[in-house]
Amino acid sequence: MFSLKEKTIVVTGASSGIGKCTSIAISKAGGRVVLIGRNEDRLIETFNKLEGIGHSYYTFDLLNFSEIKSLVSRIVTENGKIDGLVNSAGVESTVPLKVLSYKNLEETFKINVFSGIELTKHFSNKKNFSSKGSIIFLSSVMGSLGEKGKIAYCGSKAAVKNMIKPLALELADKNIRVNSISPGLVMTEMTDKLFASISEQSSQDIINKHPLGIGTPNDVASLCIYLLSNSSRWVTGTDIIIDGGYSIS
Amino acid sequence: MNKQDFFEELQELLELDFTLTETTVIGEIDSLNLLSLITFLDENFDIQKTGEELKSITSVKNIIDLIGEDSLS
Ligand SMILES: NC(=O)c1ccc[n+]([C@@H]2O[C@H](COP(=O)([O-])OP(=O)(O)OC[C@H]3O[C@@H](n4cnc5c(N)ncnc54)[C@H](OP(=O)(O)O)[C@@H]3O)[C@@H](O)[C@H]2O)c1
Q1: In a domain, A201, yes or no
Q2: How many Cβ pairs within 8 Å bridge chains A and B?
Q3: DSSP annotation of A6
Q4: CA separation (Å) from A142 to A200, A215, A247, B11?
Q5: A106 phi and psi, to 5 degrees?
Q6: Option in A99, A196, A200 nearest B39 (CB)
Q7: Kind and range of the H or E element at A123?
Q8: What architecture is the B3-71 domain classified under in CATH?
Q9: Which of A18, A30, A81, B38 would give a disulfide with A5, using CB separation of 3.0 to 4.6 Å?
Q10: How do the domains of chain B map onto residue ranges?
Q11: What ipTM was reported for this prediction?
Q12: Residue A200 belongs to some domain of the structure
């Protein structure tokens, strides 16, 4: 197991799925975790599962774009400089073109893309970030592939996996690494929502496309721990696919 | 939404080339149109349904029963 001792890591989307599991894994690796999500009850649920001490949580709606800067200041004032950021907050969108509204596109991009950029912008400021560190964005295999009804989602995830490249270049001077992870289907609430919108047969077809079966949040959390640790010190500006073979089949 | 607007919006949504009435039989709705119908019901009537739940819809009447006559003033 890679060590995250002495590191403070901020995790968005910490109230559910991959973000929740990653938060718990960070605490097990010795890190201090700052949890962000909207739902306080579910944040507390994650908080109570953390090992060690010094963790904290913040309820925040990432659609409140203009308040992200002050959230970052508050977090750093109360927890000290941070060493890592995992942008796991995200929304799924299965809306075919003919009913796709600007509102839907805007909301999907605001959460999946813009909020992560804004958090990165403020956290990466010298006064907020330790001398070296790691930032992770959650993209998706859908950032390279397509499914009917996934215009907003695929578009947003494609944006994520490419924007990390200029971010990595800009932040390399500060020794901050930026990478993205592209998971295949992972069993979380997001997947439950996706399966609810399509037929049982379509759900089964998607599952069958994963040669190693579908993933668990833990599979992705393990990769996050590696990317947050010093062991990945030479890895930046890259997108790592973790999908049980989905995209090669 | 009144009934006439509902018929017109549904016709456009499902890209049907015949006018809809209360007794129109649409037939089986394909998977992409089912996804569109999910969004249509959610945005216009605040009704959240899954693809599986809508799979059995084959007529305008089925959809009106879901929405409730009262919602179509
Ligand atoms: N599950 C998969 O199969 C899969 C595959 C590929 C990529 N991904 C990506 O991995 C990431 C995590 O997915 P997941 O499956 O863990 O999703 P999830 O279980 O649905 O969790 C989503 C998280 O995002 C948070 N969130 C959503 N809207 C927010 C907002 N406006 N403000 C603050 N937080 C918000 C939610 O917090 P609250 O509910 O507390 O607001 C929740 O903690 C996403 O970016 C997703 O696109 C997932």
Answers
A1: no
A2: 40
A3: T
A4: 20, 15, 9, 31
A5: -65, -45
A6: A99
A7: helix A115-123
A8: Orthogonal Bundle (1.10)
A9: A30
A10: 3-71
A11: 0.78
A12: no
**A198 within domain boundaries:** no
Q: Which secondary-structure segment (H or E) carries A195? A: helix A189-197
Place of tokens 């947003």: A156
Residue A231: give the domain boundaries: 8-185+217-239
pTM: 0.93
- Residues 100-139 of chain A with CB under 8 A from chain B are 101
Angle value at C-alpha A79, between A82 and A231, nearest 5 degrees: 30
Q: Within the 44-63 window of chain B, which residues sit less than 8 Å (CB to CB) from chain A? A: 50-52, 55
pLDDT per residue over B47-60, tens digit each? Answer: 999 888 998 999 99
- Ligand 1 midpoint to CA A126 (Å): 28
Pull the structure tokens for residue A143: 């950032």
Q: Which amino acid is at A96?
A: P
Q: What's the pLDDT tens digit per position in A196-225?
A: 888 888 889 989 999 999 999 999 999 999
In a domain, A68, yes or no: yes
Q: Provide the CB-side half-sphere exposure for A206 (13 A, CA).
A: 22
Q: Are A43 and A37 in contact (CB under 8 A)?
A: yes
